[in-house]
């Protein structure tokens, strides 16, 4: 059996790697089709070398088709839709494996173009996809990205080695790029939260895209503080930081649900900087971007409607971390699925049973 992983974006790798390692352990031939990206070529090369990946470098999405036709793998993993499915070799079957369990409608609509199988996480996602696409094949496996965390197959972030104080509680701030709370968190944040270690893990687009320069300026201000660690570009995985942190702060993003699956407290930021084209009477555009079903999961943890509420809420959640334990367990089952470290094994089992 020959398997390809289509790496159009760097952040697909955190979901792919646990599956790759499980397949490799079983003697399956695996290759990664890695798209060149001027913003992240150095990081991509590091990942390829560190993980012992057999990589085929791709210049563009259209070029990928020729590579897949030439190699004729049995299976190809895609992190999103792919426009040339019907031109793949007859023996090649397509797999969709999403990189997150977040709140955007694109989670569902990427199945508008059906693949041979889509691996999904929890009960609710599985049921809704079955309702929307009754003729497609969905297999519920859990969330492979979390397997290394559950199995201890990685090195957690070392506070002391990175200049932070192990005696302090650690807050992980993982803002998304848009809509984001980042520009509404003031420059003075590190001073106001001096009793905590602050780890900031920006989204890839915040680091690389020109339109998010204001976010980078704010991050660079925080970088000057002794209690702040800003994740480097090559630290592409959130997992080491999740393992070390006591609490996560983010907007409605996949990271909230991933961290809550570890039964640790989260704070959900409802204060967002929206572009003018999403404000006032045009806010419906923002609502349309988001999965309205996400409103059913707002009880996952504490919410803050303004930055000024954040410190009080942080203290409350750290002093009573079990406050939302029941809700975290319930929502994890619905959206993330089984958190037993075996999602990658279930995916590998399916491929071997259907090859």
Provide a descriptive summary of the structure in words.
This protein has 15 helices and 13 strands. The chain is of the alpha/beta class and 355 residues long. Strand 8, helix 7 and strand 9 form a beta-alpha-beta unit. The chain starts with a strand and ends with a helix. It folds into 2 domains: 157 residues, Rossmann fold, CATH 3.40.50; 177 residues, Glycogen Phosphorylase B (Rossmann fold). The chain is globular, with a radius of gyration of 20 Å. The protein has a 7-stranded parallel β-sheet, with helices on both faces. A 6-stranded parallel β-sheet has the order 10-9-8-11-12-13, sandwiched between helices. Helix 1 crosses helix 15.
Quaternary structure of the protein: single chain
Could you tell me how far the N terminus lies from the C terminus, measured between alpha carbons in angstroms?
7 Å
Residue ranges: pLDDT <50 for 5 or more in a row?
Answer: none
Q: Which strand order do you get reading across the main beta sheet? A: 3-2-1-4-5-6-7
Number of DSSP-assigned strands: 13
Secondary-structure element order, as H and E? Answer: EHEHEHEEHEHEHEHEHHEHEHEHEHHH
| Percentage of residues in strands | 15-25%
Overall pLDDT, averaged?
92
């Amino acid at each position: 059996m020959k398997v390809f992983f289509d790496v159009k974006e760097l952040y697909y790798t955190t979901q792919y790697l646990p599956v790759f390692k499980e397949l490799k352990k079983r003697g399956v031939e695996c290759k990664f089709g890695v798209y060149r990206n001027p913003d992240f070529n150095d990081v991509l090369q590091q990942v390829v070398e560190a993980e012992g990946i057999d990589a085929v470098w791709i210049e563009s999405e259209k070029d990928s088709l020729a590579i897949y036709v030439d190699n004729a793998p049995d299976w190809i993993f895609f992190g999103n839709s792919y426009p040339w499915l019907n031109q793949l070799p007859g023996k090649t079957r397509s797999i969709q494996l999403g990189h997150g369990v977040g709140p955007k409608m694109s989670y569902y609509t990427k199945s508008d173009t059906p693949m041979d199988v889509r691996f999904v996480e929890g009960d609710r996602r599985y049921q809704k996809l079955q309702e929307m696409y009754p003729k497609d094949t969905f297999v519920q496996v859990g969330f492979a990205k979390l397997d290394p965390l559950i199995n201890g197959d990685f090195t957690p972030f070392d506070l002391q080695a990175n200049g932070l104080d192990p005696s302090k509680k650690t807050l992980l701030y993982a803002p998304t790029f848009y809509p984001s709370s980042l520009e509404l968190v003031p420059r003075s944040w590190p001073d106001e939260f001096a009793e905590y270690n602050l780890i900031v893990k920006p989204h890839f687009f915040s680091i690389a895209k020109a339109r998010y320069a204001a976010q980078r300026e704010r991050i660079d201000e925080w970088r000057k503080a002794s209690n702040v660690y800003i994740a480097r570009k090559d630290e592409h995985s959130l997992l080491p930081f999740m393992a070390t942190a006591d609490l996560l702060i983010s907007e409605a993003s996949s990271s909230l649900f991933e961290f809550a699956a570890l039964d640790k407290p989260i704070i959900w930021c409802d204060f967002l900087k929206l572009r003018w084209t999403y404000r006032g009477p045009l806010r419906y555009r923002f609502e349309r971007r988001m999965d309205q079903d996400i409103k059913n999961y707002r009880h996952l943890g504490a919410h803050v409607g303004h930055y000024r509420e954040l410190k009080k809420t942080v203290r409350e959640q750290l002093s009573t971390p079990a406050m939302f334990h029941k809700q975290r367990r319930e929502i994890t089952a619905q959206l993330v699925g089984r958190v037993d470290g075996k999602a990658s094994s279930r995916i590998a089992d399916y491929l071997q049973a259907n090859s």
